[in-house]
Amino acid sequence: MDHILENKFLNKESAQRQAFEEHDDKLQLIDKYEQMNVDEAQFQIFESFVKEKTQLLGYIQDLVVHSAKALQIDASLFYSQEVIDQHIGKIKNDADIINVKNRVIIILERYQEQSGVLDQILEQIISPIMKYLQIYIKQAVGQNNYGIPKEVSHLFQIVHWICKVRGFKTIVKFFPHEVNDMEPVVEMLHFQETEEWWISYVLILWLSIIVLVPFDIDTIDSKKDIDILVKRIINICKTHISNSGKIREATAVLLSKLMTRPDVIKSGETDFFLNYLAVEYEQCKNDANQMFFVSGILQTLTEIFKIGHREDLLARVNTVFDPILKSEVKNKFMAKSTNLRKSKVQLAQRIGCIFLKPKVAKWRYQRGFRSLLENLQSKSTLASSQQPAQEEQEDEEMEEDDINFEQLEYIIQYLLESLKDEDNVVRWTAAKGLGRITGRMSKDFADQIVEQLFDLFDDNETDSSWHGGCLALAELCRRGLLLPERLARFTPTLDKALIYDINRGNHSVGANVRDAACYVVWSFARAYAPEIMKPHVHTLSTQLIVESLFDREVNCRRAASATFQECVGRQGTFPHGIEILTEADYFTLSNRVNAYLNVSCFVAQFPEYFERMVQHLAFIKLRHWEPEIRELAAQSLSVICVFNAEYITTQILPKLIELSVDKALHIRHGAILGVSEILVGLSGNSSINRKEVLERAFKALSLKERKLIEESQNKNEFLHKYQTFSSTNYLNVHVAEGSELRQKIKHIIEEIDKQKLYRGKGGEIMRAGVCHLIFSLSKARIPLSEAERLYFFKTMQENFKHPNIEIQEESTKAFKAFCLTYLSPEDDPERILISDKQIVAEIRSMFRPSAFDENVALTRGYNMAFGVLSSQLYQVLCPDIFDTLIKNSIAKGKESDDADTRKQAVRSIIQSLEIQGIKTLQHNILHDIMETLFTCMNDYQIDRRGDVGCWVREVAMQALTRFIKLLVESQQPEIFVALKADQPQFYEKYVCVLLQQLSEKIDKVREVAGRCLQQFFKKAALNITDFSEKDRLSALFCQESDQQTIANTELSDDLSYLPWRNADFVFSQLSTFFDSAVYSPSIFKGLITSSGGLTESTLKASSNSLFEYLSTMGKDKEQGLKNKKGFLGKLIYIFQENLKDERVTIPLMKTIEMLLTSDYLSDQELVDELKQIHQLTVQECNKNKNIVKLMSSAGVFSGMLQFQEQDLLQRAVRSLLFLLYHSFPKVRILTSEKLYTALLTMEDYSLIIPNGEEDYDKAVEMLSETNWSEKLSIISTGKESMYAVFGMQTQKAQAEAQPKADGESVQIST
C-alpha cells in the first residue's frame, strides 16, 4: 500500500520521461503502456526506488553505528539494540566509510526530481544522525575539542545532501531544538574554518531552528559577562554572509530568524544590524570583488522582511529603502549580475508587502472552493455561495495612515520595470512579487496595476517585456486578481503572444513568450468558470491548436498541448477536445514532422480549426525565417487543403501567387512552396507526398521513439477515410483549365526570371523553389504548351549546372516528374521527336559536356539528370545515352577526374535500367553496363579528401545488386546466356568483389557491402543457379537479428539489421571462409588493407582474425604446414596481381611483417615462399622513393632474419644494408633499429656474419653508435666496413672487381 501511495506523487508524463531518459534497463515497460493503467506503470517503474529505501536506511545506520563506536558514544540512545547488533562491524576501515557514504549520495541523487517520495522515511534518516551529532557536539565542546573527525564529517555531508535533494525547509523540522543546544552549536560553529564547508552549512541551519526557542536569549547566555550570545552569533554570520556557496543562503535564514525575535528587536540589535547592512551595501555596491557580500546583504534583508512582523519592520523600512532599493549601481559588472538583480527585486516585493496588511482581497474572483467536498456541499446553498453579502462585494478601503505611498509607488514601478529584465529568473520573481502586492490592495489600486500591464505588450517592446507581462498576467489570474471583465481586453493580446516570433538575423526570439502565453491560458482555464470563458473559447482553442501543431520548438508545442488538455478538462467547451487530445499528446507532438503532417491532418478535419490552421500556415509559417519550417508548412498545406478546396483556391492561393515575387526573400520563397504544395494536394497526390516526407523523417528516429508516436486505432480509422477523398482531383473543379488563376500559376517562373530574382543573395533558395514549382506542376499534370515546356526545361537545365548539390537534386527531382508527365507519349515514343524535338536536341547536346567539361558541377548535374528520363526518352536516345553514362562512370586517370561525377553516372545507369527495363535493351549494352559496374568496384581514386573512390564503390555495389535483381526478375534466358548469368562463375565473381569490400577498412563501405549481400541472398539467390558455397553464404547473410535499425542505403529496408560497421563482427563472420579456394583471395585482399591500415579498431579486429586463423593451423603439424604454405601462396598471388599498386602492397608488407614477428610463420619449411615474397618486395620497391613503402619493406626483410636458411638470410641482409645507406634519414634510422634488434635476437649469427664474434660485436657497435640521421656523405664513410662485416661488397666494389651482368642483381635501386 505504501508503494502505491508514494506513486501518487507522480503523473504519467513524469513516469514516462523518467523511464525513457534515465532508466534504459526498464525501457521495455513503455511497450506495456497500452495494456496497463497509469498506476501500474508508475508502480513498476519506481519499484526499484522503493526497494532502495531499505538499503538507504541500512547504509546510514552503518555509518552512525560505526561512528558512535569509534567515538565511544552509546548508540542505544538513537537506535534499538537489535539495529545496533545488525550493523555493528560492517564498516571496518576508512575506505568502507567513503564507499558507503558514496552509495548513500548516489541513491539520494536519484530522488532529485521526485524527492517527495522520501518524506515518509525522512524522520528515520535525520533524527538518529542529528541526535548523534547533538551528543557529539556537547561532548566535544565540553572538552574544548572543536575539530570534526572524518566519521562525523561524513554524517554532516549526508545531511547536506538530504537538504539539497529535499530542501532545507523540510529537513530542519527534524533537527533537535533544545535550549541547551544553542551555546554548544554556536561554539562549534565559531571554530569551523576547514574546507569541509558542509559542516558549517548544517550547523548554521541547525542554529536557525534553535534560535526560535521561546525564551529570552539573555537568560540562556552563560557567558554574557564576557561576550553576549546574540553578538557572537551576529559576528559569526558576518564572516559567512560573503560566502560564495550555499552557506550564504543558510546564513541569511539564520539572521532573519534571529533579527526578528522580539527580544533582539527590543535590545536594539536589529536596528544596529540593519544600519550596518545599509552602510556596507553603500560602500560595496560598486566593488566587483564584493559581489558575494552584496548578494548576502540582499538575501539577508529579503529574509528579514519576509518573516518579520509588519508592526516591527514598518518603522525600519526607511533604514534600507533609500540606501539600498533606490541606490543606483554604476559598476557594469555588478549591474549585469543576475543574482543581484533578482535579490533586489525580492527585497522590493517583501518591503512592498510590509506596507500593506496581509489579507485576502474580497473583491478577487473565486471560481469555487479548493476542496471538492466543499464544492459539493455548496450546491445546497448555491444562491448564498454565489452571491455573497453586499458588504463583502464592496471594495475595501486601504488604511492609509501607515503607508508611504511614494515608496509603495516606487516599488510597484520598480517591479513593473523588472518585468522587462533580460533574465528570465528576474522577470519571474517580479511577476510573483507583483501578484503578492496586488492581492493586498484595494480593487481600484489593483486595477491600475492591471492597466499598467497593457504597456508591456506594446509592439515596440522587446520579447523580455512580453514574457514578463505574460508571467505577471498568469500570476494575477492564478490568484484571482484579474477580474472577468478584463478578459475581453487581454484575449487579443494573448492571441498575439501565442504566435510571438521576432527575427534576429539568422535566428528568432519569442519561444519563451509563447511558452509563457500558454501558461496564461492554462491559468485562465483553472481560474474562470466555463460561462465566463465561453466568449473567448473560439479564439483561444484555435490558437492553442495552431501553437501545439506548428510551433518550431518542442517545448512550446508540448506546453500548448498541455494547456489545451487543461482547457478541455476544466472548461469542457473546446470543440472536439477529447478526440484531438487522443492524437495530439506529449509524444506525438515531440516530432516536428509528425506534428505537421500526421497530427495536423487529423485535426484539420474539424471545420472549427481548419481556417485558422490554414491562415497560420499560409501567412505566418510560410514566412518563417527557417527554410525547413517553410517547407514543412507548405507540405502541411498540401495535406490539409483537401478538407476545403474551395476556401483554399479562393482565399489562400491568389494571395500566395501575389507574394511569390515579394521583395522579401523568405516571403516569396514560402509563397512559391505554398503554391507548389497546394497544387500537389488539390491534384490528389497529397497522401503520396505526405508518406514520402514521413518516411524520411522517421528514418532518423529510434525504434523506441517511433513506438511512442505510432498511430493509434482512432487515427487509423481516420486515415482510411482520408485516403478516399485525398486522392480526388479538385484542381480541375476549382482551378479550371484556361482560368486566370491557372495562368498566373504558370507565369510565376517567368515573372521571377523577369525580375532577376535568381541573382544576388537568396538566388539559390529561389532556384530550389522554382524547381519545386515545376515538380508540382508536373505532379498536378497541368497542361503546358510546347513553348512553356521548353522554357521550363531550360530553367531546369540551368540548375543542373549549379554548384549547390541541393539545387541539383531539386532540379533533377523536378525533371523526373516533368519527363514522366510531358515526355512520355504512351502510343509512340517517336512522337517526342515531333512534339518536343528541341528538348530532345538539348538533351543530346548535354552528352559531350557531361564527360569533358571542366566545370565539375555541370558534369555532376548532367549525369544526375540522365538517370531520371522517361522510358520513351531512353528509347529515343539509346544507345548514345548509355554509352555516355558508361564512359562517365570510369576513371580516366587524369587529375581532373571527379569522383562525384562518376558516382552520379553509376547511379544514373541503374536508375535508367529500372525505368527502361532490361528486356528491350541490346545484349551488348547490358554486357557493357555489367562490366562497367564491376570495373567501378575497383575505383580507389584518392585526392586531398581521402579515398573518394569509395563513393563510387558504394553506389556500384548497390547498382550491381539491383542489376542482378532486374536480371533475375526478367526471366529472359537469352539475356542470361548473353551475360553468362547462367553460369556459377558470374555469381561467384559478384560475391568475390563484395566480400572484398566487406573486408575493407571503411565502415560505411562494409555496411553497404553487407546489406547488398543480404539483399542478394534474400531476394535473388533463390532463383538462380547454384554456385560455390551458396548455402553457407546464405546462412550468413540471411541470419536474423533482434536489433532493428534503418540503414541509409538505396536498397530495401525490409532486411534484418546486422552490424556490418562493427569490424569485430564482420571479420569473425568471414573467418569461416578463409580456407575457401574461391572467396579467400578476395577476402584476404580486403583484410590485408584493413590489418595494414591506420584505423585502430579495424586493424585490431582484422589482425586478431588473422592470428586466430593461423593459430588453428598448428594443431596438426603436417596439415598445418600445408595450410600455411597455402596461406602464403594466397598472399604471394595478391602481391603479384597488385605490384606497384601502393594501396595494396604497403598494407600487405605491413601485414607480412606483423605475421613474421608473431611467430605464426616461423616454420623453416616456409623458406621457398619467403624467397618469393623477398623477390616481390624488391621488385615493388625498386627505383621507388615512397618513404612509407621503403620503411614497410625494412620490416619484411628484418622479419626474415629469424630463419636458418643462409640464402634467404643473405638476400634479406643485402636488402637491409642497401636501405641502411638510403638517401632518406627516416629509412636509415628505422632500418638500423630493425637490423640491430634482429642481430640481438638471432640464434646463429654466423649464417650472416662469417668471421666470428669480433665482427658481430663490431656490427652491433656500428649500428648502435652511428648517428643515422647525419648526412649520407658522412655515414657512407663506414659503408664498406659494414658490408665487410657481413661478408659482402658494396655495389661499387663489385663493379670494380667484376663487371655486373645485366639482370643478375635483385638489389633495391633508386
UniProtKB/TrEMBL annotation:
Encoding gene per record: Contig18492.g19644
Gene Ontology molecular functions: beta-tubulin binding; GTPase activator activity
HEAT repeats (start-end): 411-448
Swiss-Prot/TrEMBL GO biological process terms: microtubule cytoskeleton organization; post-chaperonin tubulin folding pathway; tubulin complex assembly
Domain named Tubulin-folding cofactor D C-terminal: residues: 989-1188
Classification lineage: Eukaryota, Sar, Alveolata, Ciliophora, Intramacronucleata
Domain Tubulin-folding cofactor D ARM repeats: 340-578
Transmembrane segments: none
Superkingdom, natural source: Eukaryota
Source organism per UniProt: Stylonychia lemnae (Ciliate)
Protein name, UniProt field: Tubulin-specific chaperone d
Gene3D superfamilies: Leucine-rich Repeat Variant
Chain positions covered by the region annotation Disordered: 380-399
InterPro entries recorded: ARM-like, ARM-type_fold, ARM_TBCD_2nd, HEAT_type_2, TBCD, TBCD_C
Signal peptide as annotated in the record: none
